[in-house]
Structure formats: C-alpha cells, structure tokens
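User: Could you walk me through two proteins back to back? I'd like the raw sequence and the structure tokens for each, with a short line separating them so I can tell where one ends and the next begins.

Assistant: Of course. Protein one, sequence then structure:
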Amino acid sequence: MITWMQRHKKWLIITIWVSTIAFVGAGFVGWGSYNYGKSDSAVAVVGDKEVPMIDLQNEYSNLYSQYQNMLGGKFNQELAKQFKLEEAALQRVIQKYLILNYAEEIGLMTTDLEVAQELVKIQAFLKDGKFDKNTYISVLKQNRKTAAEFEAQLKKDLLVAKVQNIFNISLEKNEIKNIGSLLFSEDKVSIKIITDNAIKITPTLEELKKYWEEHKNNFKSPKGYKISYYKVANIDGKDKKQMKREALKEYLNLKKEKIKFQETKVIYENSDFLPQEEFTKIVDAKNNDILKPIYKENNYYVIKINKTMEPQVLPFDKVKSQINKMYISSQKSKMLNELAQKEMKNFKGESIGYVTRTSSLEIKNLTKEQTDQLLQNIFSSTKDTNFINFGDKVVVFKIEDTKMALYDEKNADIIKSTIQSAKTNAVTSAFLNKLQNKYDVKSYMTE
C-alpha cells in the first residue's frame, strides 16, 4: 500500500485544490508528530503570508480522509506516519499559499457573494433541497469548525481554483483518438487475495510500550482553555437587546474588578459550552483577555481567558487499547507485504478476464472502492506482477496479456477529462516551481 501511496502522492497534492468542501463530513483527525518553531499559530511563511496551523490541520484531515476512502477505511495513523502525511499536508498548503500570493499580485479576489453562492450548493448543508442555516451550523460543529473559519477557508480555496482555471488547455482531435486507444486498452489479469485472518499477533506489554514511545505524539489531548465566566441570566423575560445592555454593564464591572467571575472551568475545542460560531473568539484571545458578552440560549456570558492549555501526550494506560489495535494492524500489514512478495515469485492466481481501468467488476472480498483502486493500480503498475495492500488484505495481480482498444466516440468525455487533467497538472507543476523561485518559503516544521 505504501508503494501505491508513493505513486499517487503527487496527484493528491497537485490536483485537489478546493478541499474545504471535502472536509465537511470527513471529521477531524488528530495528529502531532512535529513541532513548529515560530509560534502556535504559524507553521510557515510563504511570500508575505503566514500559514496558520488550522490550515495545516485541515489539509491533514482531508488527506487522511481521502486515503481512508480509497483504501476501504483501513488507513490508520501508523500508515499515515510511515507515509509522512504531515509533510504531504504541509507541502500542499504551501502550494496553496504560493498561488494565493500570486493571486494577490495580479489583483484576483473572491467576493462574499461568490462564497455565499458556493455555500448554497454544498449538499451537506441542504435540507429539503435548500440551504438551511441550522443544518450548516450543526454540520460545522460536528467537524469542530465555526462558520467564520469555514467561510474564510472556502474563500481562499475558491481563489486558488480561479488561478487554476487559467491553465485549462484546449485539446487536439488526434490526441483524443490516440490517447483514447491507450486509456481504454484491456489487460488480461489474474489475482490472488491474501487476508490477515490467519495472522495472529499477541503483543507483549513491553512491545506495546515501545510502540507507544515511538508514536506517542500521535496520542495527545485536545487543546484546552482554562476560563472564568460570569453568566448574565435572563430571569425577568427581557428581550435580547435589553439583555445585551445589562451584559455590557457587567462586562465593564468585571474589567474594572468591581465584581468577580462566578465560575472557573476548562473547555476544549469540541466543547458545547459555547456556540461553535463563537469559539473563534476563545481561540484568538490571549491569556487574561476578557471577552465581550457572548449570547447563548437566552443568556449572556462574559468570559476571561486564564490560560491556554497546549495538547499533552496522553499516558500509556489511557491509550493502551488504541495502541494495541494500531500495533496489531501495523504488524499484520507488514506480514501481508512479506506474504505478497513471496507469492509474486511463483504466482498462480484466478483469472478475472480482460479488464479496462473503468470496468465495473464485483470481486469477492473486495469493496467497490477497493476494486476500483485495484484497477487503477493495475493500469499504473510498471511491473507485470505486483500487489496492493488494503490494510487487512493484499491483492497480488499479474498482467497476462494486453489488447489496445479502438477509439469509441462515447468515451470522448472521459478521454478529454483525463488528458485535460494530465496537461493541467504538468503546467501547474511547472507554474508552482516558478512561484517557489518567486516567493520565499520558510517552514517551521521540525521532527
């Protein structure tokens, strides 16, 4: 599987620009194997723009989700570390910021109207076919995002997409026909599926502790904030405007220390103590800041930030069950690779006949996503006999024969899309190289 990932790493980084929408519903993935030498908020500087940590975290979650989808959900943090997914996420976000610098230089921009027009198209935010604000806020909350954060990221991604559209290239009729014959060539293939069912791993406590020591930075508590708060309760049925006036009076009294805060507690980034759209105020505040009144459920809250609590490595005992699962999974994956290598030497598999890269197949013990990925792997392989690792199984395959296809007009759209993508990627890659020479890039990422 790592071989396949290495082969497709460039494709994932260069071609998928608009990742904000992909983030919705993917969930947030924890991480933390690297340190950032400048500050908690910036992971790099590209041109005159700082790259905030939240952008890198979003890119990491998006990449992680993409690999999980393509590999049938068997992708895990151990494999992410082996593939250096954090470095890939940083590379991709730096590429975005290179383009954002260029867009600013040539005067391109994204308007609030364009962001709004894009928001109402996103399926995750629709209810009965129409954009629904409550659904929007709820989905973002599930993904630990505020509306302000999401819309700011969407605005940047749409701007990057505008620049990318500059590089759409026209196609010649002859190249569509010639490359179409290649794209729809047929390979006669035999396969053998090897599962991890017979592989038994019983790790010792010492092995688990050693594994935890090597990977403990992947197991951290969420970022927390120790706060004090004063609740301005609506006990007399006042309207929101009256309540706000009362809350502002208490806010000034608290700043002047005429009254004291009522309670102290620790909240985390996924806390429901505050509406998620208000949580950025906590994130952006400094220690000892007192925030202006925040409205929640007919009451107002005045909050003081006492201390920001950075993520801490969780002790072994708290993550022992997770460590055990990850260790077993990683060991099984390694053993499956070894079995696949042995199988390739004297391969005898079951024929699945002639297939194309777009064949619709049903293969026992493989999901549709895994079958599709197997086909892509077959047609991108540089060897007649090879294998792909799906985490809990490997598929060894051998290409027995190849037939070139005749051009079929009904495949024209697929052919055009494929050629267009390849050409655009080549031009975009050259363009990015130019931008790297044009704008200074400084990363603060260190192991």
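----
Protein two, same layout:
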Amino acid sequence: MNSPRGSIWRKWDLHIHSPKTFLNKQFNGVSADDFVNKVSESEIVAVGLTNYFRFDGSELEDIKRKFVAKGIVVFPNIEFRTQPPNKENQEMHIHVLFSDEVSINKIENFLGRLKTVDGKYCKDLTADEIKTTSISIDTLKNTLTEDEDIKHLKDYIIVACPRGQGNFRPSGNDDGRGNNFAIVVDKSSEALFGNADDTDFFLKQDRYQNAEQKPVFLCSDSHRLEDIGKKFSWIKSDITFEGLKQTLYEPSERVKLQDRNPADVKTERVVIDKITYKNESKENKVVHFNKDLNSIIGVRGSGKSTLLKNLAQKIDPVQFQEKDKKSPYTLNDFDVEWGDGKRNEGDDDSPKSIFYVPQNYLSSLAYDDGEHINERDAFLTKLLKKNTRFENAVQSFDNFVSKNKIKIEDLTQKLLKATGSIDLLHNHLRTPFSLSTPYSQSPQSG
C-alpha cells in the first residue's frame, strides 16, 4: 500500500457514512458496490467508515472487504453524541477512530462494555434508541482506558467536531461552564473534524493554557452518494494508522485542506522522477524520488556517495569536476529521468541543473580560511540565492548600490570640478599685480 516514493500527498476522507448509516440516511437505494466505486473514482485512498454508536450488523466487515479490494484503507469510525452539552445546550459529537488493524471483534467487545446515559450497552442499541441516546464523555474515556484489548494511540485516536451541531471553540478568556466543557473535549481529543477556518485556531497553543497543536481534517460526512469526493483532506504520510498518527506530531506540515495537490507547487521539469541502473548481476534497478525531501540512508560503504556522485556527474559534469576531483564508481546504464520526461542533462528546451555538495565539501569550506575563503563566500551566496526572499533582497541591494554608485560618481565629478575652480581662484589671488595712473591729478586750489 505504501508508495516507493515514501510519504506523498493523497486524498483521505476520515468521516464518511455508508448506505447502512443509522441516521440521516439519504442514499436512496444505493448499493454498497456503488458506494465503494464512488469513493474509488474520487481517488480517495483512505476512509474513516462511520456509523453512530455501533455498526449495522456485518456493515463493517462487508464494506471493508470491498474497499480493500480497491486498494483503499479503512479505519473504523464510531460517532457518539456526548454529555454534557456545549454552551448552546447542544450535544457535542466525539469520534473514536480505530486502526485498520484492529479486529472487528475487539471493536464489538468495546461497544459491549460502553454504556449510554440510559444504562444500555452501545452494542445492543436499536436503530430507534440510537436516534435519541448519548454517552457521558467521562464514561467514554474511562471505558477506553479500562479496555485491555485496545490501547490509546496504538489502536485508536479520539477526534472531536468543532463545527455543526454541538460545535465548540475553547477559550482561555472564558471561564463559563460551557467553555470548561469545550476545553475538556479539546484536551480529550487528538484531532478535529472541521474545515480550513478551524486549522489556524487549533494550531494555536494559546487558545487556552497549555493547549497543544492539533490537525484538522476536512471530511465529506457523506449521507448521500453525491457528497462523496467533494470534501477531503490532503495527507502526506503512508496509508497506515502509523502514517495517520504522524499528522498528530506535524499537523501543519502533514495536512492541507485545499482542492489542489500540495505537491503541484513544483513544476515537473525541476523534479527528478526516478533513476535507473543495472546492478552487478545485470538486473534493472529503479529508485523513485519524492517531489519533496529525499534521504539516502545506509551504513558506511553501502553506496550513498556512489549514488550521489553518479547523479551529479550525469546531470552536470562540469560542476561535478569543479567540486569533486574523485571520479565515482560507475553504475552501469545509469540514467536520470525528470518529471517532464527529459533525461540526464536535459535539452535546449529544458536544460537541467543541480546544486551539488560532495562529501566533506562543507567541512573543507568551513575550516579552511585561506585557500577556500572566496569559494566559501561564492558557495553560500549561490545557496542562499535559491531562497526567493533572499534573492529579492540581494537584487534590491544591488539595484540600490548601482543607483547610488551613479549618484556618487556624479557628485564626485562635481566635487572635483568645484575643487579645480577653487584652486584656480587661489592661484589668481596669489599672483602680484600693480595699479598704474595714466595721469597725475593735483589738488585744486580755491
């Protein structure tokens, strides 16, 4: 199920009701196959198959089997109305989202121990009772904690709903009873089912004292076929419960609520798609690349540097020779394929380039203040210029220097000219001169 490229962005819908949902059913005769096919056609790779308080008979088993046949991972999801209510006196909704590896029997056993406020076990509730009943948040938490067959964060997570009926928004400035319950719900959950407007709020760690960042998932909450595929979350992880848990630790980096695939921000022409080569046994080998960060991991001598050197030499042999004097161990039929279909150095329409940093290169630049000082400055400047903000700042600085250099040169010329004029006047003042009288004039007598 996992991609050879590692963690990639894919569509998940973690709150989706099937035609067997107990409440607000609007599927109007849609079959389980139609339901599963619609999800598959929407390119959703993981679902939280949801029903209220329990699943309907063999619902989970039958539909999960159909999803798995389509390559779609199923996380069982039980939705509960809970007590106490929010500040609008509405029952808040809490979900227990189970790992895809938790058996149906374990889920049913848990529901067989969970009591509603009416004193009935969730497993035994009728469809009519499900319409009106609820559970205490404390009862839910305690029953989960006491269950020896399912473990928190290993087998399930708790998800709250800040929107819709029973919505909540905890605040550190309001000590009212409703707000206190909102904080309890927030603290009791690992994630939220909401929308893009909720994302920034639940990433704030000052929404109340000691609040934690939490991911917000956008879901269809489908109760009819037409709802499927219209709302979903982009999640960057393996399609596993462990992958889902990774979003709890990196909520802002692993979850995006938008229509377009977040990976599409990079044009295909600047992304390496894969490399191919033949090993010593002449077998064809393929290494797929991720559009984001790629890490080469291995013990000493496992070929990490060999792979890097072959990449650099194949794409930019001139740069390779400038930075690395040691030729690599050549991999047979080594070929680099880019996202736009071009190979190795590319062509005139789409030339390719890399920024190659060989092994120990940074150390030599960092510790040699003599021979490599100019090379280090050039390296760091080129590296930093790959950041758009830094490049724009450098360009603005260069424009400022160029513009003011002209002004300085003009003022310098004026200053030199003025200095020349002053020197000339000084020379004139120093030159002796006499006054001659063309005729003598005597005083008139009276």
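The longest helix spans residues 388-430.

Let me know if you want the two compared in more detail.
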